[in-house]
Amino acid sequence: MTQQVPSTEPELAGVRNFRDVGGLPTVDGRRVRPGVLFRSGHLAHATQEDADFLASLGLHTIFDFRNAADQRLEGPDVELPGVRNVNLPLSDPADGAEFWKMVRDGDLDQLRGILADGRAAARMVTSYRMIVTQRTGEHSRVLHALAEDSVPALMHCAAGKDRAGISIAVTLLAVGVERDAIVADYLESNAKHRRYRVRRSGSPDTAYTPEVMDLLSPLFDARAEYLQAAFDSIEDRWGGFDAYFADGLGLAPETRERLRARLLD
């Protein structure tokens, strides 16, 4: 009989894509412990009620994977009393700055030029591959921190989908969560109430037409092919996940065991 895990997903007014990853099954029959690992979009627009709820979770650490450009656009996270905030950018603010400016401000012809004919999805695949292969130091720091004392923890980026999605996936892989369960949790970011609110310049009748939104959708969707590209890159670079954790992230077997003790029932 499957154990029912209590939901810890309130209707937060100013924080998108919040959820507890507790309850996800591991390959050896265990589950992620509820109340120890959360994920969300940024906390910059959290209301007082949102902040009160987040404070009630007893968080030790918030990992913010946004870069300086993201923080200028959305603002800093709200401060939660007694919670450590760790900013570990998983993308360079200069990387793609012109691209994202075009996404926000470009007209239809410009968007077609940078996004049509599969270019948007290809960009996302490339981004996922780069984050998982080039940001090993940041992922190593997160996993070592979780193994030592940094739980309960919340991981977020801007939308809580890509950078946070990869980091959550890496963490879950490290403790042996089933691959299908990791992908299913990642795809939860597609729910209407979770999705990032796209900001575009101009009037609504031209900035958010059906064609514009169709062009933009690969950037703001959670697609299994994106996460699979990250997994494939790990296999290609290190030959497997155990080698990735040992050689790529410098995670000793005893550290992974402490991580399991922290995160699993």
Please give a quick description of this structure.
By secondary structure, the protein is α/β, with parallel strands linked by helices.
Give your account of this protein's structure.
- This protein has helices at residues 48-56, 68-74, 97-105, 108-115, 119-134, 136-148, 163-174, 179-187, 204-207, 210-220, 224-238, 241-248, 253-263, and strands spanning 19-20, 37-40, 61-64, 84-87, 153-156.
- With 265 residues, the protein is of the alpha/beta class.
- The protein has a single domain (19-257), classed as Protein tyrosine phosphatase superfamily (Protein-Tyrosine Phosphatase, Chain A), CATH 3.90.190.
- The chain has a 5-stranded mixed beta sheet with strand order 1-2-5-3-4, with helices on one face.
- It is globular, with a radius of gyration of 18 Å.
Count up the helices: 13
The fold-level CATH name is: Protein-Tyrosine Phosphatase, Chain A
Strand content: 5-15%
Apparent shape:
globular
State the end-to-end distance: 16 Å
Percent helix range: 40-55%
Structural Rg: 18 Å
The chain-level mean pLDDT equals 91
CATH superfamily: Protein tyrosine phosphatase superfamily
Cross-sheet strand order for the largest sheet: 1-2-5-3-4
Count of domain modules: 1
Please count the beta strands (DSSP E, at least 2 residues each): 5
Helix and strand succession?
EEHEHEHHHHEHHHHHHH
Largest sheet: 5 strands, mixed
Structural class: alpha/beta
CATH top-level class: Alpha Beta
Protein name: Protein tyrosine phosphatase
Family: Belongs to the protein-tyrosine phosphatase family.
GO molecular function, one term: phosphoprotein phosphatase activity
InterPro entries: Prot-tyrosine_phosphatase-like (IPR029021), Tyr/Ser_Pase_IphP-type (IPR026893)
